[in-house]
């Protein structure tokens, strides 16, 4: 059993109820959304019949900030047939809702064509690239958080070495804050050593969720000049699972920003194997909070997640 399998495991406590242990390893100030969503996936797996051998998608709304420690989950079957299942998962800690997730699942091995309609982008192989070291400003802000020890990056585009933003010499602080100087586009190989050794598609889906979720904010933040002028807590995340490859150490993640406006940022991430199999697609929405806004700084002293309530 891999560490990821243990860290996302749930224990049945009653009819449709489960308990999980939210661990410190997946904290970035607070436990990250991708990890919490993974626990919700495992609760759906525990609740679904064994014929539902693979998840198809998960769509998660983050309702409150989680903390390290026990979490209670309630799973409701919304629809179940021979070919598909739909489940509502709610996570709660100390009487407070943490998230709500819709999970769909299906059997494996059903008859259909097998095609990749989305080709993997061109990239050097991971063994041809050096491990990416986080930029100094990113390290200063979040480099000590345990989450960064759980992944290894080998970037192809974006987040590579020291920041190099063209044409910023004559820009004012306000112009640098609102004028992107690079594309909202990050591409690179990612490896999660704690996930190696598992064979379960549901656990493999957890790996895809965590990797794609982690790319979303980095993608929309990278175009703007450092030091970081804003943060963007995630409102919701949807991940569609196409194929499962637990034997693969490295996955190629390609992430792009979709739109920013009205204080909402959007991003999309896609994952492929080294052989070009399409693994997953993720979309998320985040709320923009400027550090120069006194309300942002006041809430930072209280709760990361309260920023979404501004």
Fraction of residues in H or I helices: 10-25%
Secondary-structure arrangement, i.e. CATH architecture: Beta Barrel
Count of discrete structural domains: 1
Q: In terms of structural class, how would the helical and strand content be classed?
A: alpha+beta
Q: What's the name of the CATH homologous superfamily?
A: Acyl-CoA thioesterase, double hotdog domain
**What is the percentage of strand-forming residues?**
35-45%
Distinct helical segment count: 6
According to CATH, what is the class? Mainly Beta
Order of helices and strands: HEEEEHEEEEHEHEHEEEEEEH
Tell me, briefly, the overall form.
globular
Radius of gyration, CA atoms, in whole angstroms? 19 Å
Write the layout of secondary structure elements.
Blueprint: H1 3-7, E1 10-14, E2 17-22, E3 27-28, E4 30-31, H2 33-47, E5 54-62, E6 69-80, E7 85-93, E8 96-106, H3 136-142, E9 152-157, H4 173-178, E10 185-191, H5 201-221, E11 230-231, E12 234-241, E13 250-261, E14 264-272, E15 278-287, E16 289-290, H6 294-300
Antiparallel strand pairs: 1-2, 2-6, 3-4, 5-8, 5-12, 6-7, 7-8, 9-10, 10-13, 11-16, 12-15, 13-14, 14-15
Helix pairs in contact: 2-5
Describe it for me?
It is a single chain. The chain has six helices and 16 strands. It has a single domain (3-108, 123-309), classed as Porin. The protein has a twelve-stranded antiparallel beta sheet, with helices on one face. Strands 3-4 form a two-stranded antiparallel sheet. A two-stranded antiparallel ribbon has the order 11-16. The radius of gyration is 19 Å and the shape is globular. 35% of the residues are buried. The protein is 20% helix and 36% strand. It starts with a helix and ends in a 10-residue tail after the last helix. By secondary structure, it is an alpha+beta fold. Helix 2 (33-47) runs antiparallel to helix 5 (201-221).
